[in-house]
Specification:
Blueprint (H helix, E strand, L loop, with lengths): L3 E12 L2 E12 L3 E5 L6 H8 L7 E6 L2 E2 L9 E4 L14 H10 L10 H13 L15 H13 L5 E5 L7 H18 L2 E6 L2 H4 L5 E6 L1 E6 L1 H5 L3 H8 L12
Parallel strand pairs: 3-8, 3-9, 6-7, 7-8
Antiparallel strand pairs: 1-2, 1-4, 4-5, 9-10
Helix pairs in contact: 2-3, 2-4, 3-4
The structure holds adenosine-5'-triphosphate (ATP).
The site of adenosine-5'-triphosphate has 12 residues, from strand 2 and helix 1.
């Protein structure tokens, strides 16, 4: 039986007088690896903020795990890795282990009081992203891609069922981007975590996601990524209203 993890109905949103989202309708089922793509300024981050309850809904509805957002309380089921994670302060005085433990305690320093089971969870989360060998390293000494894995481990440590990642590969070098997507696909297939990945890197995400959503103020495409890839650039640009950059791995 399919289970709706997220559903968005007739959602519209504007900042002051500027309309940003127009009549968004979408749903994500349990077990999907959904990719949300769209050009800069297309409203991706705004949509995520609304889903996470960080902006107030003006028009329309959002349900999480079948519950209307305004009544939803099971936030432990949702993990979020923000775009800002990789503009991280390199001088941050914490080890990889401590950074992941913060996902459990919310506070740095409290890791000292973790129970054995929690400590095991920290190592398990690190192992899920292939970073267990780095546990004692200072987070500031890692590469951008390695840091991003640690932030995913931090989101995983409380065992979320739904993980939302906002542009997680910005600042990650090209070789590591591919490894990074493989790791996400593994979390999806082997841990059963439903994923929503936001990106403007159209080329590389389409090869990994199970469902593709194209946003530019409204949802212009929702479906199989292969069907999308087989379209001509002209067909794709009709969705967007302007020509599209389909080059793989372009980073801002
Ligand atoms: N707090 C805000 N107040 C006013 N306008 C905003 C605010 N946040 C975003 N905007 C505007 O809303 C539009 C959509 O922004 P949003 O950040 O959601 O897009 P995005 O698709 O995530 O872009 P990017 O890929 O560049 O991160 C943009 O025109 C942006 O300037």
């Amino acid at each position: 039986m399919t289970e709706n993890i997220l559903s968005v109905e007739h959602l519209s949103f504007q900042y002051d007088e500027q309309p940003v989202l127009k009549d968004i309708n979408l749903s994500i089922q349990k077990g999907e690896f959904a990719g949300l793509i769209g050009p800069n300024g297309s409203g991706k981050t705004t949509l995520i903020k609304l889903i996470l309850g960080l902006e107030k809904i003006q028009t329309g509805q959002i349900h999480l795990f079948g519950t209307p957002l305004e009544k939803f309380k099971q936030w432990h089921k949702i993990g979020f890795v923000s775009q800002k994670a990789n503009t991280f302060n390199r001088g941050f005085p914490a080890t990889v282990y401590e950074t992941v433990a913060m996902g459990l305690t919310g506070k740095l320093g409290y890791f000292r009081f973790l129970k054995k089971k929690d400590q095991a969870n920290v190592y398990e989360a690190l192992s899920n992203v292939g970073m267990e060998k780095f546990a004692e390293r200072n987070i500031g000494d890692l590469s951008g891609g390695q840091q991003q894995r640690v932030f995913i481990a931090r989101a995983l440590v409380s065992s979320p069922e739904f993980l939302i990642l906002d542009e997680p590969t910005v600042g990650v070098d090209t070789d590591n981007v591919e490894r990074f997507y493989k790791m996400l696909a593994d979390l999806n297939q082997n841990q059963g975590i439903t994923l929503l990945l936001i990106s403007h890197d159209i080329g590389s995400i389409t090869t990994h996601v199970t469902d593709l959503l194209c946003l530019n103020k409204t949802i212009h495409y929702h479906g199989n990524p292969n069907n999308y890839q087989n379209m001509t650039d002209e067909q794709k640009s009709q969705f967007y209203g302007h020509s599209m950059n389909t080059v793989t791995h372009h980073h801002s």
